[in-house]
Amino acid sequence: MREITCLQRALTSGESAELKVIYPTEEGDPIREYYRLTPQGRLEVYTDSTDDRYSDRKWSFGECYTPEWLAEISCDR
């Protein structure tokens, strides 16, 4: 995936990068995730569940410090 390669390049070069991913729930409601890699090497993950009728309909946040691998692009939240 070209987008993951972009994040990996930013991680190794000490630059920042952002990625937005939209995927449906089983019921078809959209979930939006925003991945932000900071120049300090921290990966921030913002999840927007406001349009998911079967969730808490809130935003959530998670972060990873010095991630080494971005292929699965998921952090503890």
Global mean pLDDT: 85
The number of distinct structural domains comes to 1
Backbone structural class: alpha+beta
Give the beta-strand count. Answer: 4
Spatial separation of the terminal alpha carbons: 23 Å
Low-pLDDT windows of residues: none
What is the general shape?
Answer: elongated
Number of helical segments with 4 or more residues: 1
Proportion of β residues? Answer: 35-45%
Could you give a short account of the major beta sheet? 4 strands, antiparallel
Give me the strand/helix succession: HEEEE
- What radius of gyration results from the CA coordinates? 13 Å
Helix fraction, binned, reads 10-25%
Q: Can you give a write-up of this model?
A:
With 77 residues, the protein is of the alpha+beta class. The protein has one domain (2-65). It is 16% helix and 39% strand. The protein is built from 1 helix and 4 strands. A 4-stranded antiparallel β-sheet has the order 1-2-3-4, with helices on one face. Strand 2 (30-37) and strand 3 (42-48) form a beta hairpin. The chain is elongated. It starts with a helix and ends in a 12-residue tail after the last strand. The relative contact order is 0.21.
Write the layout of secondary structure elements.
Elements: H1 2-13, E1 17-24, E2 30-37, E3 42-48, E4 59-65
Antiparallel strand pairs: 1-2, 2-3, 3-4
Brief overview:
The protein is α+β, with helices and mostly antiparallel strands.
List keywords for this structure.
77 residues, 4-stranded antiparallel β-sheet, 39% strand, alpha+beta, 16% helix
